[in-house]
Design a protein that fits this description.
The protein has a single domain, classed as Spore Coat Polysaccharide Biosynthesis Protein SpsA, Chain A (Alpha-Beta Complex), CATH 3.90.550. The relative contact order is 0.17. The chain is an alpha/beta fold and about 290 residues long. It is globular. The protein has helices spanning about 50, 55-65, 80-95, 105-115, 120, 125-135, 160-170, 185-190, 215, 240-250, 270-280; strands at about 25, 30-35, 35-45, 70-75, 100, 140-145, 150, 175-180, 190-195, 200, 210-215, 255-265. The strands form two sheets. Strands 3, 4, 5, 6, 7, 8, 9, 10, 11 and 12 form a ten-stranded mixed beta sheet that branches. The longest helix has 14 residues, at about 80-95.
């Protein structure tokens, strides 16, 4: 989640060096069909340096161990867009990502598409708009999202993402797949009411990390209310993850939480000295648990 700052500089559109999509063959038990997947993450003023000036983003992509059709960086709410662009372009040139997108340039179109507005989202706007723009722009079958302060644990199983895709392929009632958060496997199990060999099944949604079918989320699903979703922090207003949680609960849709691997999450803004050290010595997981 990020907070608002005023922007006065003009922003460019998408990077020019777009990498063409490559179709990846996916197998299910009974048939074969073409499947495509986008990886995306985002940066904002308080974390872009740690993500773009170190190997963190490269580590993040590598730990997914997957041939993505597109790898996109969303830039949101930064003071010096041109400086951030420069570092993002270096990662394009290095082959870490394929493109970068300035969120504000597509915000109005995304809100209109989902029948939302800044007024409806309220305080949750800056916690939600990057995710909504990402979903709006995604054209692949699947979308994998990591917040900028989230990363799969080191030495995670190499096929965790393939297993997540398989779960979504096989069960239309499952709308979200995520790794267990911060190695809290007992907590993940306690929040579930069913399981399969690889995942705990239950309700819930977090914008820290998710794998979804794009078609499920690129729809008018963000105007539902559920009492259980009031557990989200009030300072976030009617934010994206709260709206998704309400939609899923209202229709008994499930999330699958991976049993055999975790992501690590830490708010970079809580330890500015540690962040500076991590950037200086290129130790981007210095802050991770």
């Amino acid at each position: 989640m990020e907070q608002s700052i005023n922007e006065s500089l003009p922003l460019k559109g998408r990077a020019n060096d777009l990498i063409g999509l490559e179709l990846r063959q996916s197998s299910t038990t009974n048939n074969h069909h073409l499947m495509t997947i986008t990886f995306e993450t985002k940066v904002w003023e308080n974390d872009w340096e740690l993500v773009l000036k170190t190997s963190r983003l490269e580590d993040l992509v590598r730990r997914c161990n997957h041939q993505f059709n597109n790898r996109i960086l969303y830039i949101n709410n930064v003071k010096n867009p041109l400086e951030v662009e420069g570092y993002a372009q270096r990662l394009i040139d290095k082959g870490v990502i394929d493109e970068f997108v300035h969120v504000h340039e597509h915000a109005d179109a995304a809100l209109a598409f989902f029948n939302l507005s800044k007024e409806k989202i309220g305080k949750g706007y800056y916690y939600s708009i990057a995710e909504l723009v990402s979903i709006y722009l995604t054209e692949t079958t699947y979308l994998l999202h990591f917040s900028s302060d989230t990363i799969p644990e080191k030495n995670i199983s190499s096929n965790w993402l393939d297993q997540g895709i398989q779960i979504l392929e096989e069960n239309s009632q499952v709308k979200v797949f995520n790794l267990t958060w911060d190695k809290k496997y007992k907590e993940a199990q306690s929040e579930s009411f069913d399981q399969n060999p690889n995942s705990y099944l239950g309700y819930g949604f977090s914008d820290q990390m998710y794998l979804v079918r794009t078609s499920d989320f690129r729809a008018a699903i963000y105007e539902e209310i559920n009492a259980a979703s009031e557990r989200y922090p009030s300072y976030g207003g009617e934010l994206f993850e709260k709206r998704v949680d309400s939609w899923m609960r209202n229709h008994q849709f499930l999330r699958a939480t991976y049993k055999h691997g975790s992501y690590l999450h830490q708010n970079f803004t809580k330890n500015l000295l540690a962040k500076k050290i991590a950037i200086a010595i290129n130790y981007p997981t210095f802050l991770s648990k």
